[in-house]
Structure formats: C-alpha cells, structure tokens
UniProtKB/TrEMBL annotation:
GO terms for biological process: regulation of DNA-templated transcription. GO terms for molecular function: DNA binding. Residues 22-72 form the FHA domain. InterPro entries: Cell_Proc_Reg/RNA_Proc (IPR050923), FHA_dom (IPR000253), Sig_transdc_resp-reg_C-effctor (IPR016032), SMAD_FHA_dom_sf (IPR008984), WH-like_DNA-bd_sf (IPR036388). This is Forkhead-associated protein. Residues 193-215 are annotated as: Disordered.
Length: 215
C-alpha cells in the first residue's frame, strides 16, 4: 500500500489516509469509524501537509487522543507510532521517510508538542496571514483575546511559552516570526471562507416591514 495508513488494533483493518484530511470518530460520516464507546462521535483527524503527517485532537472528545501513550493536542507522526482514540488504538505505517531531506528532518524535530489552547492561539494568530490578501500582519494579542474570548494577559502568557517552544528569539516582529514558522511547519491551515450572500437574495427571503406588521 502506497502512502500513510493506520492499522486498527482490534480488527486488523488497514485504512489508507486521505491526501488532505481523514476524520476519525464513532459517528456517521467520518472517514474512519470506530465502534468503541470511549471514542467520541467526531474525535480527531489526520492531516497530511507535504511530507508531514499530523494527528489532531479536535477538542470534542471526552477521553482525548494519545500518541505512544502521551496525551496530545496536535502531533507530528512517524512510522510505527501508536495512536489511541480513547481505548481504541491503531499503528501508523507507510510514512515515506526516504522523502525527507536533512532540512525537513530538522524542521520535523523542531515542531513541539502543543496543548489545545496553544493550537487555538496559533490558529488565531495566523488567520490573517492565511487569507488571500497580501502583506497581512498576524493578529495582535488583543485580536486573539477577542477571538478566543479570553483576557489579553492570558494570550500574552501563551505567546511567551510559544516563543520558547519554537525558539523565537527576542527582537522586533516576534509575532510575525512565530507565525511564519508555524505556517512553514504546516501546523495551521486556512479556514474555508464562506462567501457572503448577495443582498438581493437576502432581501427576497425577508418579509417586508408591512408584511411583518400584518402578521
């Protein structure tokens, strides 16, 4: 089998991972459906970005996601890693190590383990830079705080820890350097933009003021 896959421990089933995103859970509509009651309906997802394979806990699961026994929010995977979704487990295979250059290996090693909140902060930080507009600066601490409905002081504490984890030295444009590193590592991805409805369509669906008074 070419490409990354997961071998489910209970059944021995080998499931290839999609080129972009593979969802995992107990509910209908997921790509990998696990029947163990400890698995949430939408539990986690595998993300492939270039030579990297990640597993991401979606924050909706009661029992969490583990890699080789360690709880994770997001983690780069390697051949032979054991991923647990609650009590259900599977082993990763088919990660093409021969495609990794020494530079890529160094970047893989540089990707630290992140908590769920740190992933949220990074996603909010990088959201402007992942838009279609050119020369957009990453979000400020105030904007991240508003986005996540937390205090600005809490965001600054998270950013300080993230600077340390990603080894971003002190100096100017520190947030920009952090955002560039995170995007380069593929740790965040663009959020699909929903096109706004045309004004004419919205007007047609809403009753007129006279109609509302009549009702």
């Amino acid at each position: 089998m070419e490409g990354p896959f997961i071998r489910i421990e209970d059944t021995g089933e080998v499931v290839p991972l999609r080129p972009e995103i593979t969802t995992v859970g107990r509910g209908r509509g997921v790509d990998i459906r696990l029947t163990d009651p400890s698995v949430s309906r939408l539990h986690a997802e595998f993300v492939r970005r270039g030579p990297y394979l990640y597993v991401v806990d979606l924050g909706l699961s009661r029992n969490g996601t583990r890699v080789n026994g360690r709880p994770i929010a997001r983690r780069v995977l390697d051949d032979g890693d054991v991923v647990s979704f609650g009590a259900a487990r599977g082993r990763i295979g088919g990660v093409p190590r021969e495609d990794f250059t020494p530079e890529v290996e160094l970047r893989r090693a540089a990707a630290p383990e992140l908590t769920r909140r740190e992933v949220d902060v990074l996603t909010s930080l990088c959201r402007p830079a992942l838009s279609d507009e050119a020369f957009v600066a990453p979000a400020t601490a105030r904007e991240i705080a508003d986005d996540l409905v937390v205090t600005e002081a809490a965001v600054k504490q998270h950013l300080l820890r993230l600077y340390q984890k990603f080894r971003i030295p002190e100096g100017t444009n520190r947030r920009t350097r952090l955002a560039n590193e995170v995007v380069a590592l593929g740790l965040v991805r663009p959020t699909p933009v929903v096109p706004p409805q045309r004004a004419s369509g919205a007007t047609a669906e809403q009753p007129s003021a006279a109609g509302r008074r009549a009702s």
